[in-house]
Amino acid sequence: MPTEEPEEEPEPLTLEEQRSRLFARMKEALRLEEAQMEVIRGVFKQSPYLGQGNPELSFHPMTRKECRKIRAEAGGEAPEHPRCSAPHMAPIYDPTAGQTAEDARVCVDRFEFPGIPCEYPVVYVRASEAATLCRAVGKRLCDAHEWEGACAGVLRPLEIEYAFDRDRLQATHQHNATREITWAYGTPRDPFRCATFGWRTPKCTGEWSQCGTYTYPAGSFPSCRSPFGVYDLHGNVAEHMNLPLAPQERAALGHRGVTEMKGSWFGFSAKLPHEDDCRWRAPSWHETRVMSPASHRNYHLGFRCCKDVEPGL
Q1: DSSP notation for the chain
Q2: Residue 25's closest CA among 113, 123, 110?
Q3: Which of 53, 161, 210, 312 is the most buried (most CB within 10 A)?
Q4: Residue 35 contacts by C-beta under 8 Å, 6 or more apart in sequence?
C-alpha cells in the first residue's frame, strides 16, 4: 500500500525561516550546486522583502499537500524534457510552421519561480533581482513574446512580434490591435479555471508592512495550462519579463530591455481591470530598464525563467 504523505508543516513565522525552507526545496528539486545557492542566498539577503510574502500577513488558500493530491489525480508531473535538460521546463516553438519540440530554441519554466510544482511563488522581487536569479539557475528572464507564445501555444518570429521602428506606445497599440485573442486553456475566457480568486489585505496600499500575499501553490489548477504544458499564465502572481525595444535588447543578450508585466490574480475573476488574454501587452506600468536597481516590486509580483537551447541538442 502507498505510504500516506506526512502532514503539511506550518508556514514559517519569520521571513528568515521561510527563506531557509525555500532554499532547501530549491536545491533538491532543481538540482542546484552550492555555488548557485550562494548566489541565490546573496540576492535574497540584499532585499528586506524578497520571499513568498510577508509571513505575518500572507494567506494561502491551499496547502502544498492539497496541491500535490490534485496534481496526482490529474495525472502527475510531466517527465523532464530532453530538449530542456532541466526540471519542470517545456520547449516552446511554432507548430504552425511545421516545427516540433525538437526544433525549439528556447524552453520556459512550467511554473512560476522557483519553478517547482506546488511551491508558493516568490514575490516582492525587482526585475533586476529576477534576472539575476534566473541566471543563477542557468536560465534568463523571458522576453515578452516568449511568454506570450508559451501561453498561446505558438512562438512566433521576432520580426512578427515587435515593431522596432516605433516607440513603445505605438508598438504596443499596433500589437494589441492585431493580436490573436486566446487564453492558455483556449476560448472562451473562463477565469474560474485559474487562480484568479483575488483577496487583498484590508488597508493594503502596496507596502510590505500592510500587504499579505494571497497565492496558491504553483500548478494547483491543472486546467489552467497552455498547449505547451505551462501553468498559471493567468492568475496567481503577475510576472516580470523583458520587453526589447530593439533587437539587441533581447534577454538572451543581457536583459537590456524595459520591464513588462503579465498575468496576475489582481485581475479578479469577477472584475477585469485590464485584458488578460495571452498576447495582450500592457502599457508602460512602472517602466524601468530591467536591470535598474529601482525596478518595480510588489506583494503580487513574481516571475518565471526561460532557457536558451543550442541547435542540434
Answers
A1: -PPPPPPPPPPPSSHHHHHHHHHHHHHHHTT--HHHHHHHHHHHHT-SS-BSS-TTT-B-SS-HHHHHHHHHHTT-PPPPPTTT-STTEEEE--GGGT--GGG-SEEEESSSTTT-TTPPPPBS--HHHHHHHHHHTT-EEPBHHHHHHHHHT----HHHH--TTS-HHHHHHHHHHH----BTTBSS--GGGSB------TT--S-TTT---B-PPTT-STTSB-TTS-B-SSBSSEEEEEE-SSGGG-GGGTS-SEEEEE--TTS-TT--SS--STT-----TT--BTT-TT----TTEEE-EEEE--TT-
A2: 113
A3: 53
A4: none
Cell triple for residue 180? 490573436
